[in-house]
Amino acid sequence: MLSKNTIKHLQSLKQNKFRDEFRQFVAEGDKLVTELLSGYFNIIEIFAVNEWLATHKIANHISVTEVSPAELERISALTTPNMVVALLEIPPSQNTDLSIFDKLILMLDEIKDPGNLGTIIRIADWFGISTIICSDHTVDVYNPKVVQATMGSIARVNVQYTDLKDFLEAVPKSIPVYGTLLNGENIYTQELSRNGIVLIGNESKGISDDLLPFITQKLLIPSYNVNNGNKAESLNASIATAIVCAEFTRRIF
Amino acid sequence: MLSKNTIKHLQSLKQNKFRDEFRQFVAEGDKLVTELLSGYFNIIEIFAVNEWLATHKIANHISVTEVSPAELERISALTTPNMVVALLEIPPSQNTDLSIFDKLILMLDEIKDPGNLGTIIRIADWFGISTIICSDHTVDVYNPKVVQATMGSIARVNVQYTDLKDFLEAVPKSIPVYGTLLNGENIYTQELSRNGIVLIGNESKGISDDLLPFITQKLLIPSYNVNNGNKAESLNASIATAIVCAEFTRRIF
After folding, report:
1. Over the stretch B75-125, which tens digit does the pLDDT of each residue have?
2. Fewest CB atoms within 10 Å of the CB: A26, B125, B186, B231?
3. Which CATH superfamily is domain A98-252 in?
4. What is the ipTM of this complex?
5. What residues of A are in contact with residue B242 (Cβ under 8 Å)?
6. What are the start and end residues of each CATH 3.30.1330.30 domain in chain B?
7. Chain A from 81 to 140: CB within 8 A of any B CB
8. What is the CATH number of domain B4-89?
C-alpha cells in the first residue's frame, strides 16, 4: 500500500529541482530495473507488482513495496506502466582526471532533447566511450525520459556537467578536439586519432560560437545528393554522434 | 475565424482511420511548412497567424485562413505551437518498378516508433536513398509525429507500404538483401554493393523470422567492449540505419 507522501515524492522527482534536493531519481520497467539491480547505482526502494517480485531476487538492503497495478499507474511516468518502478540514489560526481584523455570522449554542447541524450549515452556504451562531458545547459541525465532512453547504459557511462569553455581551456594542447560541423571536411578522408574529444552541438543551433576556437579538426559527414540539390539540411544530433563514433571505432579495428 | 467543424476535422487527422478516409494529413511549424510550400505535396489549406502570413508568399490555389494564437493552439499537436498548420493531400501510392533496385533502398520491418520512422526518412534523404518499403505493420508515414520528425524529408523520400514477404519473393535473385543482425558479420570487413535492399527490424523484436531466409548478407555493427563484457545490448533502429547507410555511402565515395 502506497502512502500519498510516497506517491508525491516519486512524482516530484520528474522535476530537476527535487532531484537536486533529494539526490534521487527514478527508473522503471522490467528490463531496465532488472539491469540496474546488478549494477552501479544504489537502489533505495523497489515498487513492483506481485508478478514481478515473484520472479526477481532483490538484495536484502533494498526496501521493497508491493503495489497494485492501479498504484503502479499512479507512480509511473510511462504510457504503459511496466511492472516496476525503482527509486535510486544519484551518485556523487566523479572527479575526472587526465586519464580520460587517453581515450575518446564525447562533449555535448546543450543537447536539449531527453531522447537524444539517452540515445547518445547508449551509443557511447556500444562504442566503449566511458565519459561524456555536458554543458550546464544540457538536459539532466537523471531526467526520467533520459534514464528510460538509455536502456540501462546510464549505469556504464560517466556523464558529467561543467562549463565547457572553462573545461576546454584546461585541456592539454596535445589533445585533438573534433567538432561535427556542416562546414567541416569529409570525415572519411581525415586522419582520426584514437583519443580526443568529439564535440556535438545543440539540435538546432549547432556548436556555440565561443567553443568553435577550441576545435582542432572539423568533421563533416558527407551527404549523397540525388534530388537536384534538395536534401535534408542536417542530421539529428544523436544520428551524427553515432556515425562519427562508428567511424572512429572502425579505424581502431 | 475557425469553425468547430474545421477544428474537429484537423484534430481527427491525428488518427489513421480518418487520414485514410479523407486522404489528408497535417504538417506544422514555420520551418517545415515553409519547406513544404515549395514542394512535392498538394497543400489544401494553410492556417497561420498574421505574423507568419505577412512574411510568406502562398500560391493562389491554396486556401488561407488567418488564426489567432489561441485558435492555433486548438489545432496544433505540438507542445509549443509554431505559427502555422498546413492541411495537405496524401498523394496516391507510386508504383515501384524494377528501377528501384538499381540503387540502395531501405526496407522497414515493423518500425513502431514515429520518431524512429521520421528520423530514418531524414537519414535516407541525407544519404540519397529515395525509396523506403515498409511492412504493413510499420507506423503510418502521415502520422503527425512522423511528419514532424522528418523535418521536411518526407517530401523527398518515397515511402511505400506492402507485405514484405510477398515483396521479397518477387525481388530478382541477383539483388542483395542486407539484414542488420546481432549475429551478423562485421560490416566493415564485408563487400557491400552499390545497390540492394537494407532490411531493418522492429525496435525490440528485430527482423521477423519469416523474412530471415531472404537475407543474403548479414551485417553487424561491431561494438567496442570495455566494461568486462557489459555493454549496450543493441543500438536503436534509427541509429543502426544511420551507421549502415553511412558505411554504404562511404564505399561509394
Report:
1. 999 989 999 999 999 999 877 788 889 999 999 999 999 999 999 999 999
2. B186
3. SPOUT methyltransferase, trefoil knot domain (3.40.1280.10)
4. 0.89
5. 235, 239, 242-243
6. 4-89
7. 115, 119, 122-123, 125-128, 130
8. 3.30.1330.30
